[in-house]
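Q: Here's a chain of 174 amino acids. Please give me its 3D structure as tokens.
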Amino acid sequence: MFKKVTSIAMFLALFLLISGFGGCGKKAAEKTAEEATERALESSTGGQADVDISDNTVTVNTNAGSYQVGGNVDLPSDFPDDVYVVDGTITAAITSVENKGYTVSIETTQSVNDLKTLYEQKLADEGWTVNLTMTYEGGASVGGEKGNRIVSIGINPSEEGKTTVVVTTSETNY
């Protein structure tokens, strides 16, 4: 169900960011897009959906979690303190109520190798057992466990000499 919400929100966000809402009808276009998205999300989640489109950012809140993407994204206020978030621009943030999960995408200028080493150290410093480190085709991954929680970090080069870091953490049921 949350994948449907994410897919709808991502499609809407991409459409809105590409179209830029040009011209005088910006507020009307935002309102129409918000209402259409809320109806679609309420239908797909069977519950309440709240959509806000402003400041080049789309924010979707449902009873299953939240999704925020765009140019003005905030780190979720209850994001775990023991999971390091590299300095940079947060471009997307997802929360999931069901598994107390979070996914945050950050764009930074640090290199893939430096970030891999940094995340291995930061996770270990916070008491995580690092059980995965991998380098592949220009990118890298780091993963760990702590109690009933897992964390994974994907690090990949992106456009214009930047690097995208995707941090995902959640509770497990095993």
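Q: Can you summarize the key feature?
A: The helical segments are 2-19, 26-45, 112-125.
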